[in-house]
Automatic annotation (TrEMBL):
InterPro entries: START-like_dom_sf (IPR023393). The chain crosses the membrane at residues 12-29, 41-61, 67-89, 96-117, 129-148. SUPFAM superfamilies: Bet v1-like. The keyword Glycoprotein does not apply. This is SRPBCC family protein. Keywords: Membrane, Transmembrane, Transmembrane helix.
Length: 339
């Protein structure tokens, strides 16, 4: 018995044709010619190529297939095959595949819908012209987009936590952060995405001009030069990745911190009173995002930065509260011993 039934061949042809368009776009936009325009982060690749994939898949899908298969299931299956192939053949890393998968799935379905709307009452020749236009449009418009520069957008991500400890205790745990284990941090999606876990933060000397070395797993290190030092109130610093220590395989080129598309510029801790014996600790950072899909990319970078900051704050909270509880127990024991 044949592995694939004969009546299913046309579905394979439809998916294969869409996959061919996507792979052609992948290798074309990854070439040096389009590097200055953003390469795989160009709109022509991120939006028009999946739209072409959807239109081509819908064009070759059998007429007997349901409307849902034409508009949703067929294009989505082709996107899945393309992204899986990109992973298996190491064309893209897991983080990039996860980021673009919702965008590709939606725009592929949109391409199929527009194709269906334009050709629903047309003959075969007109349908061929329309699908050819979809397939060619990304490559025709790409040279024009290549002339444009991506905008710079500056974003702030803020996390807050209330700690049952005095400002003095909290301050000592933020200026320097002793080694952090994976058990301290707990599980998180950012680990599965391949981002290194924070390890520790050292300080050259206290005060303005001091340099914190924030180290992460796999050789990632950031140099944080302090320019605001207000004990028990506020510490702020500029951030520069130590590129000499970061292996080139740690990050995908599209999500490299300090790269052309994304950078973390500043970090700030602020301490505020939060009732008797409690301190509110605020951690916020400023990032630069330089893509043509900043609103969409910002959703991902915002989530990732917020999750990293949240986990660090949780570690600080537990350590501060453990220390405060230990001090309280010791004081109580001393007072009891006196009497």
């Amino acid at each position: 018995m044949a592995f694939i039934k004969r009546q299913h061949y046309q579905y394979l042809i439809a998916s294969g044709a869409g996959l061919l368009i996507a792979l052609l776009g992948r290798f074309t936009f990854a070439s040096r010619y389009f590097n200055d325009g953003g390469g795989l982060l160009m709109l022509c690749f991120l939006l028009l190529v999946p739209m072409a994939l959807g239109a081509v898949t819908a064009h070759f899908t059998p007429r007997t297939a349901s409307l849902w298969w034409h508009l949703v299931w067929g294009p989505s299956l082709t996107v899945l095959v393309f992204l899986t192939s990109a992973l298996l053949f190491h064309l893209e890393g897991m983080i990039c595949v996860l980021i673009i998968s919702p965008l590709f799935t939606i725009t592929a379905a949109l391409g199929a819908l527009i194709y269906h709307f334009l050709t629903r009452n047309e003959g075969n020749q007109s349908k061929t012209y329309v699908v050819a236009a979809f397939a060619l449009l990304p490559f025709v418009l790409a040279p024009l987009e290549n002339l444009l520069t991506a905008p710079n957008e500056y974003r702030r991500v803020e996390n807050t936590i209330v700690i049952a400890a005095s400002a003095d205790v909290v301050w000592q745990h933020i200026v320097r952060v002793p080694p952090i284990t994976a058990q301290d941090l707990g599980p998180s999606l950012v680990d599965r995405l391949g981002f290194p876990r924070p390890v520790e933060a050292t300080l050259s000397h206290e005060g303005v001009g001091g340099v914190r070395r924030a180290t992460f797993e796999r050789g990632v290190e950031f140099l944080e030069t302090i320019d605001v030092w207000e004990p028990q109130r506020r510490i702020s610093f500029s951030i520069v990745p130590n590129t000499a220590t970061i292996p080139p395989t740690t990050f995908d080129e599209h999500v490299t911190v300090g790269g052309r598309f994304f950078d973390v510029l500043r970090g700030t801790y602020e301490l505020e009173p939060a009732g008797p014996g409690c301190t509110r600790l605020v951690l916020y950072s400023q990032q630069r995002l330089s893509t043509r899909i900043n609103p969409y990319a910002g959703l991902w970078t915002g989530y990732i930065m917020s999750e990293i900051q949240r986990r660090i704050l949780e570690v600080i909270r537990r350590r501060c509260e453990t220390e405060s509880a230990g001090v309280a127990v010791a004081l109580a024991a001393n007072q009891k011993a006196r009497y």
